[in-house]
């Protein structure tokens, strides 16, 4: 809050423009950027200079992007603090990866309006702008909170709550040993018990992070409708994109029951897949198009994946769909290319008017790569994917999960060194607090509540 | 109607654990102080358990002592048993607990108060306050004596509109059948303070002669006795043990069969009781699957046969209490000398107080102790000394003395009270402190003696001893840092015997001490015995061994203190700030936080509100500069 730390955020609208910028501000801005930068030593350069290099993770060797870095030393900067701007390629993937890296190195994800706030508090903005700053903080927070709440129903939040419960029971157990040392109803928590409990939670956090890496917990994304005639392979496509673990795929209740929405991450691009599976089988598709629901799906879709069957000829219905799709972003998939060709590819190419046409054989796992390439091409050249808040709060979640994990790992190191449990506890508690920040609950009062509901204490 | 009975600087109403600290601190700081109590024979009376200290609370006594308070000194003189708890855990949670000789404690405290210069002690019932233009100017007693002072500290504990509940019996009373304070409570309400009903309880006492100790387990004191006070040089010698027994299914049956007879469960009681101090009927109801509960038998003093039956706090009728007591092994023939009871009383929601414990409503009026919704003698003492100090600083027009959460449990306690309030009698727990590792038993003097000295509550002799200790600690650490331990058979042997791993190469003694299993004594086996005092060695060991954790905590503290140092102007108009959420605005208006740090701890005030508040305050600063 009061500004001793270094903050970072993506300062350009995601998905727009050829360049994306990750901005860092604070005392460690240079140090953090330097850690990943392969170009010149940033600590020795002049202020207000621009440098070419790569952003590379020094441990994993992963290269996030080629970048230009601008270095601006305090106080002649927007925030009056040391500022670094990492200019990378536009789009989603690099900028997100770079942000993740700098957060990993100790930067904190900026709160809404925080750069502006710092600028103001450091005397950089004049009085007339103060109201505006407050409004920005207010509105951005509302927005962020809405998104956060929206993202937090469902599995993730349940899982986090469950992990927190595990941790707080452990914490309360240690606390009761401390505050009521003569209370003999509960055995003294041992290093082994603590080790076991923390191992479980750590494993679960790791799983979550693994999932996060694939982007599947990114809860907002490009609304993508899959349409096509029955048996053309829509479900297979969905499954292929969702890949292995269906259990983590979220079904959102309360919208339209027979429409399944799934969230996948294709090369860093979050897609919210809308399968029309439930409304497809009984009647033919064109007739269904008249139904409000499916029309609504199409109206709301940012992107349509239109599937055709290589083994069947083009029907009048298909042509009607092509018409409907005019002025929309879509990709045509010609599936079942392993079967005999009965589809007039010429005509399809004509109807698509330059939109991508991918041939696939989903039962043989063919064509998914091409589809993914087409998707990312489309994405990076498309304007208007503007849901930056959703994306940011996801990074926030991942970041908090990582912090929680680190704290737990430190606790486990201490356990191994036979450090007294009340000190190991410090890190366990931090881990619990980080998880709490994900679900918006950090009140330490809940520990006291837990203490007295779990144990029978008194005089 | 009333007559002018005298003029003072500070008046303390009540002579319990809060009152004694408040009055003695004020007097020591040079203020002409008057202390009024209902009953001169009950000064610093312990109406409930005969023990002081324990986790968190024991550390509070050390803190009060480091500031120059009296509780530690008196308990060291009057204890019948001392135990250091949590010795098997880390240094942060170690805590001393004493069994007190109750009558002796009263006697010694009275003696100390009576002999305090600048302090006048009188027996009187205060009925109302003298308020002029919203400022407290004194008090009037029921005998119409008007005492005038610019600062009044009320420490009336559980006496205000106290009501004892025992089975179907209910009568107005302070604890232990003392007179109840009614008029004052009504007066406080009249002058605009909100009141809330709280409840607590106490178990029966039995006659020691009628206990069959052979059926119980002995709980002796420590062999090596320590004291609370940094001034105590000789410690209590003949210790008296406590004894442990348990309830059983018979006990639980008696209780279950008669639950409806409990004042607690018959719907008579309206006050909120503490969860951490439940009655035995509460325990049986809430944890009905537990086959037994612990019962500690604690002597109330050397020259009394009364034994406190810890664990059987109850408001069931006396004849049921009798059956309950007799169902417990060792108590089959026990004679109950006093029954347990529940007591309900008025307290003041502490969010009505500034962090100095002065009321926001009435300038010059302070409240401290159980009246502020806390429980426990130690919590009361802590508030008492802080109220006493701040009353005098207020008189002098000096900056208030507010301890933060990183330097003391006292700070945690008061900040919790005035910032969050409490919905049940508040008890300190180590888990309430974010920086527990910094708030240790062993370093209370290092944290607070300087303050005590600056305030004039610590004498020069003690202060010199303290500064010598500090320089010894520094010398010792430097010595260990310079001392290189080389690999030798002797060293490897010593390490193996200490269940440590042998050295691979030469190492600084300092770094060797960081190993969890290596104590200062092991180092001394290697480098020879050092001439430092034991407490210095202990301090050196803790500081070195836990340096990593301590540094981590200090980093967090630094951030916290930055927030604390951003003060909120007292004349701030929250209604003028449009962007702050409604709920947050209401809370801020009520609590009136003095700093951004305090504001950020208010439930319902979120980080965005804090950001806006910061910007708003900064805006004001710029405006002022421009004008």
Descriptive overview:
The complex is a heterodimer of chains A (459) and B (627). With 459 residues, chain A is of the alpha/beta class. Helix content of chain A is 46%, strand content 16%. Chain A has 15 helices and 12 strands. Chain B is globular and about 85 Å long. In chain B, helix 2 packs parallel to helix 9, helix 6 packs antiparallel against helix 8 and helix 12 crosses helix 16. In chain B, 53% of the residues are buried. Classes of the chains: A alpha/beta (459), B alpha+beta (627). At the A-B interface, helix 3, helix 4, helix 5, helix 14 and helix 15 of A face helix 7, helix 17 and helix 20 of B.
What structural class do helix, strand and pairing data of chain A support? alpha/beta
Mean pLDDT reading of chain A: 75
Please report which band the strand proportion of chain A falls in: under 5%, 5-15%, 15-25%, 25-35%, 35-45% or over 45%: 15-25%
- Write down the secondary-structure element order of chain A: EEHEEEHEHHHHEHEEHHEHEHEHHHH
Sheet bearing the most strands of chain B, described?
Answer: 6 strands, antiparallel
End-to-end gap of chain A? 41 Å
Structure summary, number of beta strands of chain A? 12
Q: Bin the strand percentage of chain B.
A: 15-25%
| Structural class by SSE content of chain B | alpha+beta
Q: What is the general shape of chain B? A: globular
Counted by DSSP, the helix tally of chain B is 20
